[in-house]
Design a protein that fits this description.
This protein is of the alpha/beta class. It is built from eleven helices and 19 strands. It folds into three domains: 24-86 and 301-470, Beta-lactamase (3-Layer(aba) Sandwich); 90-148 and 274-297, D-tyrosyl-trna(Tyr) Deacylase, Chain: A (3-Layer(bba) Sandwich), CATH 3.50.80.20; 166-254, no CATH class. Strands 3, 4, 5, 6, 13, 14 and 15 form a seven-stranded mixed sheet that branches. The chain has a six-stranded antiparallel sheet with strand order 2-1-19-18-17-16, sandwiched between helices. It has a three-stranded antiparallel sheet with strand order 8-7-12, with no helix packed on it.
């Protein structure tokens, strides 16, 4: 039989293990949980001192939870480590015909290689390069090569039945302006009507304006605007009552197929710049052995991930995942290939976890899972790399920019943390780095999964935790 001393020692050992795994929650965090009737076992926290490696707070940090968009921290870290901060994407333009007196006697081909940020302003620069190469008029068609990625059939309504929302856009090797149009609505009291204009304008997108102008303050869901689209999404109908108190209002929505969007945007911008073009479009593969007329480089990866993390851009994160697949495993890039690259990287660097369920790299998923401890290890790894400054600066600065612009702006936390937020229905998460009042620096990972926690209570818990940590 065991002696009384042995039993006492075993009890103390068990308590030590328990304390190492789950220390007590800070009082102000527990108070918010109690106030909002949130069970404390719905919360996971892992905080450590980045200099000493000491675990400052661990609370259910080995429980797998949905991390929401904080999973982008893993996607962008792997990209930085594998591709390097100066990596850039290339978009090729080929002239398939003779150029004579400013006229291309043939087709113009654009081959995409996954640039996540080929927005309207960047496309203007690309087309200016085309004009500088001597082309003013194009006799043939616009040929589109998006074969660098192999994207499975994508249902934009599958996640939340919001097919027109920008966050549901699928990746594409020739992604332009995120396949999104910004619709501007402006009240015109003199004619008792509502004017609608598009940015960017697309010649192949038709708008049916059935809005009426009514007296009232500028409020209401979507300011009273109802949207409907035909099956092909080449006609958008706006109806409803728009309040006269709204001088201007804007909403972003995705339209058309990727190739149709490219054709519409190219045509509009080319003609706006005085170019001639009357052809159609075809989806092709670029011919072998033809040298590009233009090789248009993207901004470097370090700048791209800042736009991914600060603004939680889903399609940009997915573009990066497909790029990892194409660069490491060979063309074409696929989602499965990107997942393999990420999982292999985790194993190579001793960061693999049986709790991790990684899907599309963006966090727009009900299936993705990881632990706060695993997130903490990822943050620790990044902190010790030579590209750490680029990684940290890609996160939102508390109270100042990105998804944290309107949070912590009037508190001591403003400017003292670089964080990535994550929010889905019933998911609230935050992860990143924080400097306390004392100057100590911490890696912070916090995830909470509970009914309606995304509607505000989760942010209250996060703020309570970060205020407590700031005083450490």
């Amino acid at each position: 039989m065991m002696s009384r001393l042995s039993i006492v020692l075993l009890v103390f050992a068990a308590l030590a293990i328990a304390n190492a795994n789950d220390t007590a929650l800070p009082l102000r965090v527990q108070s918010v949980l109690n106030l909002r009737a949130l069970p404390d076992d719905t919360l996971s926290i892992h905080i450590e001192d980045l200099d000493s490696g000491e675990a400052v707070l661990r609370w259910h940090d080995q429980v797998a939870r949905n991390p929401g968009s904080t999973i982008k921290l893993l996607t962008t870290l792997v990209a930085l480590d594998v591709l390097g901060p100066t990596y850039s994407w290339q978009t090729d333009v080929l002239a398939l015909g003779e150029i004579e007196d400013g006229r291309l006697h043939g087709d113009l081909l654009i081959k995409g290689r996954g640039d996540p940020f080929l927005v309207t302003e960047r496309l203007w620069q690309l087309l200016r390069r085309v004009r500088q190469a001597g082309i003013r008029n194009i006799d043939g068609d616009l040929l589109i090569d998006d074969s660098y990625f192999d994207v499975a059939i994508h249902d934009p309504a599958a996640f939340d039945r919001q097919a027109l929302r920008a966050y549901n856009v699928a990746p594409n090797a020739l992604l332009m302006n995120f396949k999104v149009v910004r619709y501007w609505f402006e009240a015109e009291p003199d004619t008792n009507s509502v004017r609608i204009w598009l940015d960017p304008p697309l010649e192949n997108l038709h708008v049916d304006n059935r809005l009426s102008l009514v007296p009232g303050r500028c409020r209401g869901y979507q300011r009273g605007i109802t949207i409907s689209a035909n099956e092909a999404v080449d006609r958008m109908t706006f109806s409803g009552a728009f309040p006269s108190g709204c001088r201007r209002y804007a909403m972003d929505r995705t339209v058309l197929s990727h190739n149709e969007f490219v054709f519409g945007l190219f045509t509009s911008l080319w003609r706006d710049a005085g170019g001639g073009f009357g052809g159609g479009w075809k989806n092709v593969k670029a011919p072998q052995g033809v040298e590009p007329l233009i090789e248009f480089e993207s901004m470097p990866l370090a700048d791209v991930i800042a736009r991914v993390n600060k603004h939680s851009n889903n399609v940009m994160a997915r573009q990066i995942l497909y790029t990892l697949s194409a660069e490491v495993l060979g063309e074409p890039g696929t989602e499965d290939g990107g997942r393999k690259v990420v999982i292999d990287w985790l194993e190579k660097n001793g960061l693999a976890s049986s709790h991790l369920a990684f899907e599309n790299g963006a966090g727009l998923s009900r299936k993705v899972r990881m632990t706060a401890q695993n997130m903490g290890a990822i943050l620790r790894f990044a902190w010790r790399q030579p590209y750490m400054p680029e990684y940290v600066s890609s996160l939102s600065l508390s109270g100042l920019d990105g998804t944290l612009t309107d949070r912590f702006e009037d508190t001591a936390l403003s400017g003292n943390a670089h964080l990535k937020t994550g929010s889905l229905d019933h998911v609230a998460a935050i992860a990143g780095y924080m400097q306390a009042r004392s100057g100590r620096r911490f890696g912070v990972a916090m995830m909470q999964n509970h009914a309606d926690v995304h509607r505000g209570p989760g942010e209250e818990v996060q703020e309570a935790l970060l205020h407590w940590l700031y005083e450490q």
